[in-house]
Amino acid sequence: MNQYGQNMNMKSNIGGNDGALLNKRQRLLNLMKNTKDSYMHGWSSGLPQRTLDSIRGTDSENPPDSNLPLDMDIQFYPTYTTKSEEGYETMVRLAVFSPGNPASRRNRILLSLCKQYLRPANPEAVDDANESKFDDPSTSESTLTAKSSASTLTLNGLHDNGSPAPDELDVLKSRIAGFMIRKIPNLPIIIDLLSREGPGYYDTTLATTNNIGNISLRIRSEFLPTDIRITLDTPTDFPKVITHRFPCNFIKPNGYGVISDIDDTIKHTGVTGDKRSMFRSVFLNDINTWLINDVSRWYKKLKELFQADFFYVSNSPVQTYPTLYQYVSNHFPAGPLFLKQYTGNLLSSIMTSSANRKLGAITQILKDFPNKKFILIGDSGEQDFEAYLSTASQYQEQICGIYIRCCKDSLSDMGLRETEVMHELNDIISEQYLSHKSKETRKKRPPPPVSLLKPDLSPEQQKEIKESRLKPKNRDLPTLPPRPSEVQDLESSVYCTPSTQNDYGTYNQFFDKKADAWRSRVLNGVRTLKSLNKDKPIRVMFFTDPKVPLEDYVNEVQRE
Hints:
The protein is α/β, with parallel strands linked by helices.
């Protein structure tokens, strides 16, 4: 009989011999203790000795705080394993948290402010007024309680006018749960890289969560790991063991890769719209309504044709990770998600976006895969165009395409001119960069070799050549072309500085500030691309229909 069975029998016999002397309650306590000891022994037999020593605290120099929440857990962010010179390198990212107390002052303020975005009020009246309240320490507990009670009455249906539906409130609570959690800082963690090759193929790393409860590190191993086991190094008197096992994602070092934005690139977010609409899109709308026509089909086609690996990089708060991961997993090729960690005013972090925040993750991906060819996909609602140009300047041999999706109301002050402006921007890129580089490539081709042997000419050919040389040459000069008329349309030739007093007759069309700004941005981008001096140009395109960049990229790959 195995050891587990022997321990069970031994403890059962002891309980039986003393049963006559013990009352019923004592026998029940003994049974519970024996069951717990047997369970812990069976569970621990599946862990390596180094992991067990860490859990028991023998390897921990700084014991963790004894007041650890019983409901804490691990949030793992899947990344990748890649080949390195020494073997393999695995990126590990995780957070340790507890759900937090919904009744705390901070969380009640957050929920109260979020509820105001559910009501059909004037969005401008709620946008700027609420953001400052979240971190305002002067907000009294009594005021908060009164507001919370009023909101409860509204949500219970006592006030039908302007109250959110109960199902909306449930969706809201589930999606803002990430903003209400409590992170566990300075907690020791045991990370085991595992392999299916055998029980001896594992590597253990000890780490500690930082001051905001996160861990981000890279682990080198001589073998290819297939799984990661993460265990919280809790004190010996902690009532349970918290450990989880996650799969490793190995990404090949060569081939094609896609680095894609998320908001308004593969999902409807509305970064360029009003804040209330954006809030409802992120925290209330069904994730299936986020789909953008044909973008999912485009990505799946890239995966099918080129076996491309996908990396999703976004400025969305890391607190929205569970919902975004579910959306990407349901509709797009699998790939790691890299989101941003915001601190301070949480509502402001949702509304704030800067493409430069993504450069760190993009740069790290390009460094990890120097032999991959990447295309960068973003949108016109943020600064993706400039961020991708900056990336192409540093990694010009790895970037072969930049595609920018034109989102609503981002290219022109007049909605009907959005398509016209998009075509104009593509014409600038084509005429001043793509076709220019093609001409340079054709000019650089070496001329055909000139034969050093003179051809044998017949007597007739020699006579014809001699006669042509004796003929007098025509000395008549060509006529001059007609001069342009000096009289021009005054409206098109004269430009007057706009005046706050009178602008009559100075423009032949409305001045489109957004379109003019985009022309300037694209011209600056063309100058940046030209300065790279690449023989083969980087494909750059603005689009609304995903089939157009797909066809462009397929044709480009076929020409290689």
